């Protein structure tokens, strides 16, 4: 209707001009000269009065609206206009959810075809009772239980050394040597027993993993208590007791003037025995405090951890059900999918048939990555949340959005927050501030420590030292530099991170399985001879 009104108005104006032109022609030259003078005056006034830019834009929009209305009234009924294609960057179109759904459907269909082909070829290989039968039938698995119980000995020794350091005010190299020796024995003793008794790697690897966690926890426990003793010694050496008393008095005076909030701070400052009071060194040196730290899902010791008020029962039940169900899924995928692929990859690797080895590697990548994702969820979300819920531990920041990582360094920072915090607090920062390392060299040391533990958790249970895991972690340093400097993060960096996870792990698994398979059959052949 607005377009029709504009067209009507435009036609009326044109008709009025034609009538005035006809009347002027009949009126003679006198009227023509008057109209000319009037037009010149109007033109002069228009040239002196310029319209603003907004008025010009509005006039342009009015002209476009008028032109559009005229086209709509045209007899050919036009359908075309100035529009870019949806895939053009200038079109502004960005809704591709349908293509994402297509990709998900293709992914599901292709993996379902591979799973169906596996079942047709090998049959049903899943046996959820088999791991339990192996554990109960073989007496070689019981040393793992004994090792877990023996772990308490090292915890008691660490606690006794801390009491010795506090009660006798010992800060000596001898005490440090005893603490370092206890930590070293915590890794050497179980490694020696596993190598001697030859338990199944299915059970010895988790046992050694628990020992590694206890090792890192006791390392943090020792460092934190030593820092507290050092801080106390510095305060005594500076003889600042009088200044400290004055500052405490001023704080208490301000607290009394703050109303209820000040009363609460005053109650805490006076050392109330209620639940909200904070521990100070050496009040934390109790066996209960140490074992609470051992049960919490963190590697960094603190005097006062954030605590919840109650256990969320529904949340706890959900996580426990995940702990029961998802490991069965992982075991089923391993039995049905991983083991046949590994068995079929030994001969091509021995015969150096590299195209076939590459095909086996790519075939192994998908199920291995799926199992790795399930393991991440089971451990970092289900298991750690169960431990945090039972201990009322409040900090549940076990992982961040590592799937959006645009660099390798960002990935290792986000995907395992407890280990990252430990490495930064107890390795990276002391190397820089105490030993004068630069950031690059300190980062290399951190990756070397991580590589040592990766190799320890693989080589000792398998009883063979090939350094594949160690080299894989060390190579993360140049790979991180390549991603950050050449690819410069962004989408390409994220794709590089995912590619390293999808391809790197299956390659290491194939190498270790080949070496383990060869060593196992060589041992059987030597025994037969």
UniProtKB/TrEMBL annotation:
Pfam family, one: MBOAT
Membrane topology per record: Multi-pass membrane protein
Entry EC no(s): 2.3.1.20
Region entry Disordered, spans: 1-56
Chief place of localization: endoplasmic reticulum
Keyword Transmembrane helix: yes
Transmembrane segments: 140-161, 173-195, 201-219, 320-339, 370-393, 435-453, 465-483, 495-514
Any one GO molecular-function label of the UniProt entry: diacylglycerol O-acyltransferase activity
Localization in the cell: Endoplasmic reticulum membrane
Active site: 454
InterPro entries xrefs: MBOAT_fam, Oat_ACAT_DAG_ARE
Protein keywords: Acyltransferase, Endoplasmic reticulum, Membrane, Transferase, Transmembrane, Transmembrane helix
UniProt pathway: Lipid metabolism
A single BP term in Gene Ontology: triglyceride biosynthetic process
UniProt name for this protein: diacylglycerol O-acyltransferase
Superkingdom of origin: Eukaryota
One cellular component (GO) term of this entry: endoplasmic reticulum membrane
Family assignment from sequence similarity: Belongs to the membrane-bound acyltransferase family. Sterol o-acyltransferase subfamily.
Organism: Macrostomum lignano
């Amino acid at each position: 209707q607005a377009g029709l009104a504009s067209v009507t108005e435009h036609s009326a104006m044109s008709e009025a001009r034609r009538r005035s032109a006809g009347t002027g022609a009949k009126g003679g030259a006198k009227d023509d000269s008057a109209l000319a003078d009037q037009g010149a005056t109007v033109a002069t006034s228009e040239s002196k009065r310029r319209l603003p830019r907004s008025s010009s834009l509005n006039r342009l929009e009015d002209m476009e609206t008028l032109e559009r209305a005229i086209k709509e009234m045209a007899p050919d009924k036009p359908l075309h206009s100035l529009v870019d294609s949806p895939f053009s960057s200038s079109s502004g179109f960005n809704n591709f959810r349908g293509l994402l759904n297509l990709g998900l459907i293709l992914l599901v269909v292709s993996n379902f075809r591979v799973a169906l082909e596996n079942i047709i070829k090998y049959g049903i290989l899943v046996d959820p009772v088999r791991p339990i039968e192996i554990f109960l039938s073989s007496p070689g698995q019981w040393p793992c239980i004994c090792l877990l119980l023996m772990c308490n000995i090292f915890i008691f020794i660490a606690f006794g050394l801390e009491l010795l350091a506090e009660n006798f005010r010992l800060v000596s190299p001898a005490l440090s040597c005893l603490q370092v020796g206890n930590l070293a024995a915590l890794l050497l003793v179980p490694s020696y027993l596993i190598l001697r008794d030859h338990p199944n790697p299915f059970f010895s690897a988790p046992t050694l993993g628990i020992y590694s966690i206890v090792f890192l926890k006791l390392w943090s426990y020792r460092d934190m208590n030593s820092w507290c003793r050092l801080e106390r010694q510095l305060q005594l050496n500076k003889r600042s007791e009088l200044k400290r008393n004055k500052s405490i008095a001023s704080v208490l005076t301000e607290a009394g003037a703050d109303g209820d909030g000040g009363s609460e701070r005053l109650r805490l400052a006076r050392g109330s025995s209620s639940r909200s009071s904070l521990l100070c060194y050496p009040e934390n040196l109790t066996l209960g405090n140490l074992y609470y730290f051992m049960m919490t899902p963190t590697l960094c010791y603190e005097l006062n951890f954030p605590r919840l008020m109650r256990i969320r029962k529904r949340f706890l039940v959900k996580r426990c059900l995940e702990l029961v169900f998802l490991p069965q899924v992982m075991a089923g995928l391993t039995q049905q999918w991983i083991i046949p692929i590994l068995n079929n990859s030994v001969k091509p690797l021995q015969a150096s048939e590299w195209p076939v080895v590459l095909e086996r590697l790519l075939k192994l990548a998908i199920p291995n990555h799926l199992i790795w994702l399930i393991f991440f969820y089971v451990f970092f979300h289900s298991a750690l949340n169960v431990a945090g819920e039972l201990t009322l531990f409040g900090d549940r920041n076990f992982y961040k959005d590592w799937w959006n990582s645009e660099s390798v360094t960002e990935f290792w920072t986000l995907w395992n927050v407890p280990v990252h915090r430990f490495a930064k607090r107890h390795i990276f920062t002391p190397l820089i501030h105490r030993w004068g390392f630069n950031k690059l060299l300190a980062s290399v040391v951190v990756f070397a420590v991580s590589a040592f533990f990766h190799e320890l958790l693989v080589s000792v249970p398998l009883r063979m030292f090939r350094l594949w895991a160690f080299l894989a972690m060390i190579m993360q340093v140049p790979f991180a530099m390549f991603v950050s400097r050449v690819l410069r993060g962004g989408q390409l960096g994220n794709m590089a991170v995912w590619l390293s996870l999808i391809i790197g792990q299956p390659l290491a698994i194939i190498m270790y399985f080949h070496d383990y398979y060869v060593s196992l059959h060589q041992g059987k052949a030597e025994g037969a001879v």
